[in-house]
Design brief:
Component of the exocyst complex involved in the docking of exocytic vesicles with fusion sites on the plasma membrane. With 811 residues, the chain is mostly helical. It contains 26 helices and 4 strands.
Length: 811
């Protein structure tokens, strides 16, 4: 029962589903019934659905058939009417075709005109569109043409600006045209071309300033010299920022050069022509000579192109290379001042350019870069100057070099570069300058001393007298009272040497100028250099003259007189230095002049040389002595050589009247002592083995001549018999032998008041031995003569006693 109900329920559901599907098929578009049919095929009631579908189709067919049967008559009527309309339509067609033919015939010209009008309107629209497009393209082409013109005229910075406008403003408006694409593709090439050309201009500029840096530096140093001269003229007037004034003047030209940093400044790179200036006397500014526009253009171009750092690195690298070339001195620089001047001009020119670049560009170079270059330049310059100045032996060249270095330092100091090391180096060169001066003055002194006649200066008139006194500080009231002609006591080398010392002081002072030294430092430098001149140069020159082999006693005497007067003049040299340095001698740490010591030493050397020279002359006369030691004849006059020697001594000591008393006395005493000693040696020399009493008598005559000379007082100032004491040894020895007073000698020997106190027993024994041998050899028959035998015994006895005295003395 339940199964039947369930089957019935399922059958109703299936029928309802089939009904729904059929309605859906009837109401749905044919293209969209696929899913509906798929649901039928997917179900299990396919057969029942087909039956249901067939039943529905039959129902529709029956309804169509009923519909057709109901409207059949109307359909027949409609077909009849349609046939009538077909005929009328054919007539209408024929009429329309006829009308069309007529219309076509009549409207053919109009169509032609309309076609022409159409073409005209089309052309007009095309022309209008073309004009509009050309109006867009013309500015592009004009800008491109302008760009090309600027490139041809080398106005690269404006060309770069034009290129920027062309690329960012004009080309985007017409970017779809092919020629614009060509332009766009060409823009990077144009940029590179501008970049390369501007770099080429920069290279030309760098090469130009490298070649002309000496001219730039020369101009800058002339400006510094003019400013320094002006400062010296208006030294008493207040100066505010005078050192910076020169630098400000140097930059005045660039007040109007702001435009030169813009693309409007298009002059060629290098050195400008300033030879046609109206005022030839005015020195142009150092920067007036240089056109810096290539640097500014290239800097702006690289900045716009975003390659400023590349440009800065390249510029600094090239300038460093140029700096090394500039700082390399020529090998022969030390030969002339022009070599140094050109070297300094190049360095100044280099740093003037760099200083201007520093102040007229922003960041192309900076202070650290400039300071680094300057430190390198300073070290290399100082090293080069030390090396090359050491080769210089001309003090004038050294002085000129010093002035050039000062100008070099002052010029660079104006531009803000520290130059203290240069002034420190000048102090080193000062020592070298002093050495070259000493060498020069050594030659001057040598020439003066060699050309001097070593005779007192004769003056025949008041004018000549004043001339000599004007050259040398000399005062002598006695000489002033004398009538003309008269003579100064000194020779010509005294005023000449004195004036040369003053010239040396002036030369030292010249070097100290502009070194920014205090008066005390200048005074100390001059005094030390003058001391070297006196103690080393002049002293050596005097000693060389004094030690010359052919120097005469007259010359030596005159040298002593001259040095005495030069010694007195030292106080005037002190005053002279004080006057030119304004430093009082009483100032603490003031160096004293050693001239007094120098001239004293020279005088003492001359005195010693006089003593030596006199002794040598005496020796030369003694070499002429020709004694016959074996003679038995008794002479009645002194030997000829000794007479000549005494005459020479008299004439010599007569010249000593102008010498200081002690010098003449010492010379006379020294000569007498040397003569006495030489005569004693002549008597006792080993070569004289035998002598006779007659020879002793002749020798005694010679000694008496010497004593007579001593008593005559050849030099005033000796006390009585003082000079004769030089011959006391000879006198007592000769008296002992001639008087044969051996008993007195032997008896009184050793007593302070004995008659023969100065006779040495050794000397007496030596001379006695010579006489004993003579007695033995010359008197063959002496043993047969009683007197001779007694004398020989006496000699033997005396000799024995003398030996006893000698042995007892030694013990």
């Amino acid at each position: 029962m339940e199964r039947g109900k369930m089957a019935e329920a399922e059958s109703l559901e299936t029928a309802a589903e089939h009904e729904r599907i059929l309605r859906e098929i009837e109401s749905t578009d044919t293209a969209c019934i696929g899913p509906t049919l798929r649901s039928v095929y997917d179900g299990e009631e396919h057969g029942r659905f087909m039956e249901k579908l067939e039943s529905r189709i039959r129902n529709h067919d029956r309804e169509i058939e009923k519909m057709c049967n109901f409207h059949y008559q109307g359909f027949v009527d409609s077909v009849a009417e349609l046939l009538k309309v077909r005929g009328e339509a054919q007539k209408l067609k024929n009429q329309v075709m006829d009308t069309n033919r007529k219309l076509q015939h009549e409207g053919k010209e109009l169509v032609i005109a309309m076609e022409e009008l159409k073409q005209c309107r089309l052309q007009q629209r095309n022309i209008s569109a073309t004009v509009d497009k050309l109006m867009l393209c013309l500015p592009v082409l004009e800008m491109y043409s302008k760009l090309r013109d600027q490139m041809k005229t080398k106005r690269h910075y404006p060309a770069l600006k034009t290129l920027e406008h062309l690329e960012h403003t004009y080309l985007p408006q017409v970017s779809h045209y092919r020629f614009c694409k060509v332009m766009v593709d060409n823009i990077p090439k144009l940029r590179e071309e501008i970049k390369d050309v501007s770099m080429s201009d920069l290279k030309d500029f760098l090469e130009s300033i490298r070649k002309h840096s000496d001219r730039i530096g020369e101009t800058a140093m002339k400006q510094a010299q003019q400013q320094r001269n002006l400062d010296n003229i208006v030294l008493q007037q207040p100066r505010i920022g005078s050192k910076r004034k020169l630098k400000k003047d140097a930059y005045t030209i660039f007040d109007a050069e702001i435009e030169s940093t813009s693309p409007k400044s298009e002059q060629d790179s290098g050195i400008l022509d300033v030879e046609d200036e109206e005022d030839d006397e005015e020195v142009p500014g150092a920067q007036d000579l240089v056109d810096f526009s290539p640097v500014y253009r290239c800097l702006h171009i690289y900045s716009v192109l975003g390659a400023r750092e590349t440009f800065e690195n390249y510029y600094r690298k090239q300038r460093r290379k140029q700096a090394r070339l500039v700082l390399q001195p020529p090998s022969n620089m030390h030969e002339t001042l022009d070599g140094y001047r050109k070297y300094f001009n190049q360095i100044v020119g280099f740093f003037v350019v760099e200083d201007h670049i520093l102040h007229t560009t922003q960041g192309l170079v900076n202070r650290a870069y400039i300071d680094e270059l300057w430190e390198m330049a300073l070290s290399k310059t100082i090293a080069a100057l030390r090396t090359h100045s050491s080769y210089c032996s001309d003090p004038n060249l050294v002085l000129d070099l010093k002035n050039l270095i000062v100008l070099f330092a002052d010029t660079l100091q104006v531009y803000g570069f520290p130059v203290n090391q240069l002034f420190d180096m000048l102090l080193e060169i000062r020592d070298q300058y002093s050495e070259t001066l000493l060498k020069k003055w050594a030659s001057i002194f040598r020439s003066i001393l060699d050309s001097d006649n070593y005779s007192p200066i004769p003056v025949a008139s008041e004018e000549m007298y004043k001339k000599v006194v004007g050259q040398f500080p000399f005062q002598d009231t006695e000489l002033e009272k004398q009538l003309f002609p008269k003579k100064f006591p000194f020779s010509e080398f005294v005023p000449k040497v004195y004036n040369q010392i003053k010239e040396f002081i002036y030369a030292c002072l010249k070097f100290s100028e502009d070194l920014h030294l205090s008066s005390t430092e200048v005074d100390d430098m001059i005094r030390k250099s003058t001391n070297l001149l006196l103690t080393r140069t002049l002293s050596n020159s005097l000693l060389n003259v004094i030690k010359r082999k052919n120097i005469g006693l007259t010359e030596l005497v005159q040298i002593i007189i001259n040095t005495t007067h030069l010694e007195k003049s030292c106080k005037y040299l002190e005053e002279f230095i004080t006057n030119i340095t304004n430093v009082l001698p009483e100032t603490v740490h003031t160096t004293k002049l050693y001239g007094t010591t120098t001239f004293k030493d020279a005088r003492h050397a001359a005195e010693e040389e006089i003593y030596t020279n006199l002794n040598q002359k005496i020796d030369q006369f003694l070499q002429l002595a020709d004694y016959d030691w074996m003679t038995g004849d008794l002479g009645n006059k002194a030997s000829d050589y000794l007479v000549d020697l005494i005459a020479f001594l008299r004439s010599t000591f007569a010249v000593f009247t102008h010498l200081p008393g002690k010098v003449a006395q010492t010379a006379c005493m020294s000569a007498c002592k040397h003569l006495a000693t030489s005569l004693m040696q002549l008597l006792l020399e080993a070569e004289v083995r035998q002598l006779t009493l007659g020879a002793l008598q002749q020798f005694n005559l010679d000694v008496r001549e010497c004593e007579q000379f001593a008593r005559s007082g050849p030099v005033p100032g000796f006390q009585e018999d003082t000079l004769q004491l030089a011959f006391i040894d000879l006198r007592q020895l000769l008296d002992l032998f001639i008087q044969w007073d051996w008993s007195t000698y032997l008896a009184d020997y050793g007593q302070p008041n004995c008659k023969y106190l100065r006779v040495n027993p050794v000397t007496a024994l030596t001379l006695l031995e010579k006489m004993k041998d003579t007695s033995r050899k010359n008197n063959m028959f002496a043993q047969f003569r009683k007197n001779e035998r007694d004398k020989q015994k006496l000699i033997d006895t005396v000799a024995k006693q003398l030996r006893g005295l000698i042995s007892s003395h030694h013990s």
